[in-house]
Amino acid sequence: MLDELLVFAGGFKGNAGLDAVDIFNTSSKTWSHAKMSTGRTLFAGAALGHIAIFGCGEGDGGGTADIYDARTGKVSTVKLGGGSRKKCAATAVTLAIDSNGTPTEGKILIAGGYKSVAVDVYDLKTGKWTLTKMSESHFYMASASAGPFSLFCGGLAPSGDTALCDIYDARGDGSWTTGNLTRAVREINAATATGTNGEQAAVFIGGGITTVFTSSADGSHTSWSHGNSTAGESPWCKFGAATSGDGGRFAVFAGGNGNAKRIEVFDAVRKTWAFAPHNLSLGREQVMGAGTSEWVGFAGGTIGSYNPTGYTSRVDLFHIEDLFPQH
Questions:
Q1: Of 140, 277, 294, whose CA–CA distance to 204 is shortest?
Q2: pLDDT at position 234
Q3: pTM for the model
Protein backbone atom coordinates (compact mmCIF):
# COMPACT_ATOMS: atom_id res chain seq x y z
CA MET A 1 0.00 0.00 0.00
CA LEU A 2 0.99 3.69 0.12
CA ASP A 3 4.64 4.38 1.05
CA GLU A 4 5.63 0.83 0.11
CA LEU A 5 4.15 -0.86 3.17
CA LEU A 6 3.47 -4.56 3.66
CA VAL A 7 0.53 -4.97 6.04
CA PHE A 8 -0.44 -8.23 7.77
CA ALA A 9 -3.36 -8.57 10.18
CA GLY A 10 -5.20 -11.02 12.41
CA GLY A 11 -5.29 -14.79 12.07
CA PHE A 12 -5.43 -17.84 14.31
CA LYS A 13 -3.27 -18.39 17.37
CA GLY A 14 -4.42 -21.56 19.06
CA ASN A 15 -8.19 -21.28 19.28
CA ALA A 16 -8.22 -17.49 19.50
CA GLY A 17 -8.19 -14.74 16.91
CA LEU A 18 -5.43 -12.12 16.84
CA ASP A 19 -6.16 -8.40 16.78
CA ALA A 20 -2.62 -7.51 15.69
CA VAL A 21 -1.77 -5.42 12.62
CA ASP A 22 1.93 -5.66 11.70
CA ILE A 23 3.30 -3.16 9.18
CA PHE A 24 6.69 -3.52 7.47
CA ASN A 25 8.16 -0.43 5.82
CA THR A 26 10.24 -1.71 2.90
CA SER A 27 12.15 1.58 2.65
CA SER A 28 13.33 1.85 6.26
CA LYS A 29 13.23 -1.93 6.88
CA THR A 30 11.36 -1.33 10.13
CA TRP A 31 8.21 -2.75 11.68
CA SER A 32 5.37 -0.85 13.33
CA HIS A 33 2.21 -2.17 14.91
CA ALA A 34 -1.46 -1.36 15.39
CA LYS A 35 -4.53 -3.21 16.66
CA MET A 36 -7.91 -4.02 15.22
CA SER A 37 -11.07 -3.65 17.27
CA THR A 38 -11.26 -7.42 17.74
CA GLY A 39 -9.38 -10.60 17.00
CA ARG A 40 -10.18 -11.82 13.49
CA THR A 41 -10.08 -15.25 11.90
CA LEU A 42 -11.65 -16.48 8.66
CA PHE A 43 -11.78 -12.88 7.42
CA ALA A 44 -10.48 -10.95 4.41
CA GLY A 45 -8.54 -7.77 3.71
CA ALA A 46 -7.48 -5.51 0.86
CA ALA A 47 -5.57 -2.24 0.46
CA LEU A 48 -5.93 0.77 -1.83
CA GLY A 49 -3.69 3.83 -1.60
CA HIS A 50 -3.37 4.78 2.07
CA ILE A 51 -6.29 2.61 3.24
CA ALA A 52 -6.28 -1.08 4.22
CA ILE A 53 -9.56 -2.69 5.27
CA PHE A 54 -9.97 -5.96 7.19
CA GLY A 55 -13.52 -7.19 7.57
CA CYS A 56 -15.96 -9.99 8.38
CA GLY A 57 -14.72 -13.12 10.14
CA GLU A 58 -15.67 -15.63 12.77
CA GLY A 59 -17.22 -14.50 16.03
CA ASP A 60 -18.10 -11.03 17.27
CA GLY A 61 -16.11 -9.21 14.58
CA GLY A 62 -17.98 -10.83 11.71
CA GLY A 63 -20.28 -7.86 11.21
CA THR A 64 -17.59 -5.17 11.30
CA ALA A 65 -14.57 -3.94 9.36
CA ASP A 66 -11.40 -2.27 10.66
CA ILE A 67 -9.85 0.48 8.52
CA TYR A 68 -6.09 1.07 8.85
CA ASP A 69 -4.97 4.52 7.61
CA ALA A 70 -1.28 4.56 6.65
CA ARG A 71 -1.16 8.36 6.86
CA THR A 72 -2.14 8.43 10.54
CA GLY A 73 -1.21 4.90 11.63
CA LYS A 74 -4.62 4.62 13.29
CA VAL A 75 -7.45 2.09 13.03
CA SER A 76 -11.16 2.92 12.91
CA THR A 77 -14.11 0.53 12.88
CA VAL A 78 -17.36 0.44 10.90
CA LYS A 79 -20.40 -1.82 10.94
CA LEU A 80 -20.85 -3.77 7.71
CA GLY A 81 -24.18 -3.29 5.98
CA GLY A 82 -24.14 -6.90 4.82
CA GLY A 83 -24.24 -8.24 8.37
CA SER A 84 -22.10 -10.80 10.12
CA ARG A 85 -20.45 -13.56 8.10
CA LYS A 86 -17.18 -15.49 7.84
CA LYS A 87 -14.97 -16.93 5.08
CA CYS A 88 -15.56 -13.86 2.89
CA ALA A 89 -13.20 -12.47 0.23
CA ALA A 90 -11.86 -8.96 -0.43
CA THR A 91 -10.14 -7.08 -3.20
CA ALA A 92 -9.53 -3.52 -4.38
CA VAL A 93 -9.91 -1.89 -7.79
CA THR A 94 -8.22 1.36 -8.84
CA LEU A 95 -10.23 3.73 -11.03
CA ALA A 96 -7.94 6.78 -11.17
CA ILE A 97 -4.43 7.81 -10.06
CA ASP A 98 -2.59 11.11 -9.66
CA SER A 99 0.70 12.15 -11.29
CA ASN A 100 2.64 10.20 -8.66
CA GLY A 101 0.72 7.01 -9.37
CA THR A 102 -1.22 7.20 -6.09
CA PRO A 103 -4.84 6.00 -6.32
CA THR A 104 -7.33 8.85 -6.04
CA GLU A 105 -10.45 6.89 -6.98
CA GLY A 106 -11.30 3.26 -6.45
CA LYS A 107 -13.20 0.78 -4.35
CA ILE A 108 -12.50 -1.92 -1.78
CA LEU A 109 -14.99 -4.79 -1.68
CA ILE A 110 -15.70 -7.27 1.13
CA ALA A 111 -17.79 -9.96 -0.49
CA GLY A 112 -19.82 -13.03 0.25
CA GLY A 113 -18.94 -15.61 2.84
CA TYR A 114 -20.75 -18.48 4.48
CA LYS A 115 -24.43 -18.34 3.44
CA SER A 116 -24.07 -14.72 2.30
CA VAL A 117 -24.37 -12.90 -1.03
CA ALA A 118 -23.73 -9.50 0.57
CA VAL A 119 -20.95 -7.26 -0.74
CA ASP A 120 -19.89 -4.16 1.20
CA VAL A 121 -18.23 -1.55 -1.03
CA TYR A 122 -15.95 1.22 0.26
CA ASP A 123 -15.45 4.22 -2.05
CA LEU A 124 -11.93 5.67 -1.67
CA LYS A 125 -12.92 9.08 -3.08
CA THR A 126 -15.97 9.68 -0.89
CA GLY A 127 -15.15 7.49 2.11
CA LYS A 128 -18.69 6.11 1.96
CA TRP A 129 -19.97 2.53 2.07
CA THR A 130 -22.68 0.98 -0.10
CA LEU A 131 -24.20 -2.50 -0.19
CA THR A 132 -24.68 -4.76 -3.20
CA LYS A 133 -25.11 -8.51 -3.86
CA MET A 134 -23.42 -11.33 -5.74
CA SER A 135 -25.43 -13.83 -7.78
CA GLU A 136 -24.93 -16.72 -5.34
CA SER A 137 -23.34 -17.30 -1.95
CA HIS A 138 -19.93 -18.91 -2.10
CA PHE A 139 -17.08 -19.00 0.37
CA TYR A 140 -13.46 -20.17 0.34
CA MET A 141 -13.43 -18.18 -2.90
CA ALA A 142 -10.53 -16.17 -4.31
CA SER A 143 -10.59 -12.54 -5.41
CA ALA A 144 -8.53 -10.31 -7.69
CA SER A 145 -9.07 -7.26 -9.90
CA ALA A 146 -8.32 -6.41 -13.51
CA GLY A 147 -9.03 -3.02 -15.07
CA PRO A 148 -12.25 -1.71 -13.50
CA PHE A 149 -13.42 -5.24 -12.62
CA SER A 150 -13.25 -7.14 -9.32
CA LEU A 151 -13.69 -10.91 -9.58
CA PHE A 152 -14.78 -13.38 -6.89
CA CYS A 153 -14.27 -16.93 -8.12
CA GLY A 154 -14.59 -20.54 -7.06
CA GLY A 155 -15.02 -21.86 -3.56
CA LEU A 156 -17.96 -23.68 -2.06
CA ALA A 157 -21.56 -22.86 -3.00
CA PRO A 158 -24.76 -24.44 -1.60
CA SER A 159 -24.59 -26.96 -4.45
CA GLY A 160 -20.96 -27.87 -3.76
CA ASP A 161 -17.62 -26.86 -5.25
CA THR A 162 -18.17 -24.16 -7.86
CA ALA A 163 -16.54 -22.64 -10.94
CA LEU A 164 -18.63 -19.49 -10.62
CA CYS A 165 -17.01 -16.06 -10.97
CA ASP A 166 -19.05 -13.05 -9.84
CA ILE A 167 -17.63 -9.98 -11.61
CA TYR A 168 -18.20 -6.47 -10.30
CA ASP A 169 -17.72 -3.46 -12.60
CA ALA A 170 -16.66 -0.68 -10.23
CA ARG A 171 -17.45 2.16 -12.62
CA GLY A 172 -20.35 4.43 -11.72
CA ASP A 173 -22.80 2.85 -9.33
CA GLY A 174 -21.39 -0.62 -10.04
CA SER A 175 -22.90 -3.60 -11.87
CA TRP A 176 -22.51 -7.40 -11.93
CA THR A 177 -21.93 -10.10 -14.52
CA THR A 178 -20.75 -13.70 -14.18
CA GLY A 179 -18.12 -15.98 -15.69
CA ASN A 180 -16.49 -19.32 -14.94
CA LEU A 181 -13.18 -20.85 -13.94
CA THR A 182 -11.69 -23.71 -15.91
CA ARG A 183 -13.57 -26.06 -13.57
CA ALA A 184 -15.03 -26.11 -10.08
CA VAL A 185 -12.35 -25.52 -7.45
CA ARG A 186 -12.74 -25.01 -3.71
CA GLU A 187 -9.12 -24.41 -2.67
CA ILE A 188 -8.06 -21.47 -4.83
CA ASN A 189 -6.11 -18.23 -4.62
CA ALA A 190 -5.54 -15.25 -6.88
CA ALA A 191 -3.43 -12.17 -7.55
CA THR A 192 -3.45 -9.29 -10.02
CA ALA A 193 -0.61 -8.60 -12.45
CA THR A 194 -0.15 -5.73 -14.93
CA GLY A 195 1.05 -6.26 -18.48
CA THR A 196 1.76 -3.91 -21.37
CA ASN A 197 -0.28 -0.74 -22.01
CA GLY A 198 -1.86 -0.97 -18.56
CA GLU A 199 -3.56 -4.28 -19.33
CA GLN A 200 -4.28 -6.22 -16.14
CA ALA A 201 -4.70 -9.93 -15.47
CA ALA A 202 -6.59 -11.48 -12.57
CA VAL A 203 -4.76 -14.80 -12.16
CA PHE A 204 -6.62 -17.65 -10.41
CA ILE A 205 -4.90 -20.94 -9.64
CA GLY A 206 -5.67 -23.95 -7.48
CA GLY A 207 -6.49 -27.60 -7.76
CA GLY A 208 -4.16 -27.98 -10.73
CA ILE A 209 -5.95 -25.45 -12.94
CA THR A 210 -5.34 -21.90 -14.09
CA THR A 211 -7.83 -19.25 -15.16
CA VAL A 212 -6.73 -15.77 -16.24
CA PHE A 213 -9.18 -12.91 -16.80
CA THR A 214 -7.57 -10.03 -18.70
CA SER A 215 -8.89 -6.49 -19.07
CA SER A 216 -7.65 -3.37 -20.79
CA ALA A 217 -7.10 -0.43 -18.45
CA ASP A 218 -10.42 1.15 -19.41
CA GLY A 219 -12.37 -2.11 -19.38
CA SER A 220 -13.29 -1.88 -23.07
CA HIS A 221 -11.62 -5.21 -23.93
CA THR A 222 -11.67 -8.38 -21.83
CA SER A 223 -10.70 -12.00 -22.41
CA TRP A 224 -10.42 -15.34 -20.63
CA SER A 225 -7.75 -18.03 -20.87
CA HIS A 226 -8.01 -21.46 -19.28
CA GLY A 227 -5.73 -24.39 -18.65
CA ASN A 228 -2.84 -25.66 -16.58
CA SER A 229 -0.20 -23.16 -17.61
CA THR A 230 1.80 -22.88 -14.38
CA ALA A 231 5.18 -24.55 -14.08
CA GLY A 232 3.10 -27.49 -12.96
CA GLU A 233 4.75 -28.89 -9.85
CA SER A 234 3.39 -26.77 -7.01
CA PRO A 235 0.72 -28.19 -4.65
CA TRP A 236 -1.63 -25.27 -5.11
CA CYS A 237 -3.81 -25.71 -2.08
CA LYS A 238 -3.66 -23.58 1.10
CA PHE A 239 -1.01 -21.27 -0.40
CA GLY A 240 -0.35 -17.53 -0.39
CA ALA A 241 -0.54 -14.95 -3.19
CA ALA A 242 0.80 -11.44 -3.74
CA THR A 243 1.32 -8.81 -6.44
CA SER A 244 4.75 -7.24 -6.87
CA GLY A 245 7.06 -5.45 -9.31
CA ASP A 246 6.91 -2.06 -11.00
CA GLY A 247 3.31 -1.47 -11.96
CA GLY A 248 2.41 -4.78 -10.30
CA ARG A 249 3.88 -6.84 -13.13
CA PHE A 250 4.17 -10.12 -11.23
CA ALA A 251 1.68 -12.43 -9.51
CA VAL A 252 3.63 -14.41 -6.92
CA PHE A 253 2.40 -17.62 -5.26
CA ALA A 254 4.14 -19.50 -2.43
CA GLY A 255 3.82 -22.30 0.10
CA GLY A 256 0.88 -24.64 0.24
CA ASN A 257 -0.40 -27.97 1.39
CA GLY A 258 2.11 -30.33 2.94
CA ASN A 259 4.60 -27.66 4.03
CA ALA A 260 5.46 -26.62 0.49
CA LYS A 261 8.37 -24.19 0.04
CA ARG A 262 8.14 -23.46 -3.67
CA ILE A 263 7.56 -19.95 -5.04
CA GLU A 264 6.04 -19.57 -8.51
CA VAL A 265 5.81 -16.33 -10.48
CA PHE A 266 3.55 -15.21 -13.34
CA ASP A 267 4.97 -12.44 -15.56
CA ALA A 268 2.04 -10.52 -17.06
CA VAL A 269 4.23 -8.83 -19.68
CA ARG A 270 5.70 -12.05 -21.07
CA LYS A 271 2.64 -14.10 -20.04
CA THR A 272 4.95 -16.83 -18.74
CA TRP A 273 5.32 -18.85 -15.54
CA ALA A 274 8.55 -19.72 -13.74
CA PHE A 275 9.71 -21.15 -10.45
CA ALA A 276 11.71 -18.64 -8.43
CA PRO A 277 15.38 -19.48 -7.75
CA HIS A 278 14.64 -19.14 -4.02
CA ASN A 279 12.20 -20.95 -1.74
CA LEU A 280 10.46 -20.02 1.49
CA SER A 281 12.84 -20.47 4.42
CA LEU A 282 10.19 -22.56 6.14
CA GLY A 283 7.67 -24.65 4.27
CA ARG A 284 4.13 -23.99 5.42
CA GLU A 285 0.51 -23.77 4.39
CA GLN A 286 -2.14 -21.06 4.89
CA VAL A 287 0.62 -18.46 4.49
CA MET A 288 -0.37 -14.86 3.68
CA GLY A 289 1.29 -12.78 0.97
CA ALA A 290 1.67 -9.05 0.28
CA GLY A 291 3.74 -7.09 -2.20
CA THR A 292 5.05 -3.64 -3.16
CA SER A 293 6.74 -2.39 -6.32
CA GLU A 294 10.05 -3.92 -5.23
CA TRP A 295 9.34 -6.37 -2.43
CA VAL A 296 7.16 -9.35 -1.67
CA GLY A 297 6.56 -10.91 1.74
CA PHE A 298 4.98 -14.15 2.94
CA ALA A 299 3.99 -14.27 6.60
CA GLY A 300 2.73 -16.74 9.16
CA GLY A 301 1.05 -20.02 8.36
CA THR A 302 0.72 -23.49 9.80
CA ILE A 303 3.26 -26.28 9.91
CA GLY A 304 1.79 -29.65 9.01
CA SER A 305 -0.77 -30.96 6.58
CA TYR A 306 -4.45 -30.81 7.59
CA ASN A 307 -3.59 -31.42 11.26
CA PRO A 308 -1.25 -28.52 11.97
CA THR A 309 1.45 -29.14 14.57
CA GLY A 310 1.90 -25.45 15.16
CA TYR A 311 1.73 -21.90 13.92
CA THR A 312 4.63 -19.72 12.89
CA SER A 313 5.33 -15.98 13.00
CA ARG A 314 8.00 -16.36 10.31
CA VAL A 315 8.07 -13.68 7.58
CA ASP A 316 10.06 -14.26 4.40
CA LEU A 317 10.93 -11.08 2.48
CA PHE A 318 12.24 -11.13 -1.09
CA HIS A 319 13.27 -8.45 -3.54
CA ILE A 320 11.27 -9.15 -6.69
CA GLU A 321 14.48 -8.96 -8.78
CA ASP A 322 15.74 -11.99 -6.87
CA LEU A 323 12.59 -13.99 -7.50
CA PHE A 324 12.29 -13.26 -11.21
CA PRO A 325 15.66 -11.98 -12.45
CA GLN A 326 15.03 -12.93 -16.08
CA HIS A 327 13.17 -9.72 -16.89
A1: 140
A2: 57
A3: 0.94
- Give dist(CA 318, CA 45) in Å, integer: 22
Bridge partners of residue 142, in order along the sequence: 153
Rounded CA separation 74/32 (Å): 11
* Helix/strand number for the chain, H first, E second: 1, 31
Give CA–CA dist 193/138, Å, rounded.
Answer: 24
Element of type H or E holding 323: helix 320-323
- Of 167, 248, 254, 250, residue with least CA distance to 1: 248
Distance between CA atoms of residues 180 and 167, nearest Å: 10
Distance of CA 64 to the CA centre of its chain: 19
Determine the straight-line distance between the first and last CA of the chain, rounded to whole angstroms.
24
Contact 157, 205 (CB under 8 A): no
Q: Which amino acid is at 34?
A: A
Model pLDDT for residues 225-243, shown as the tens digit of each residue: 987 656 555 557 889 999 9
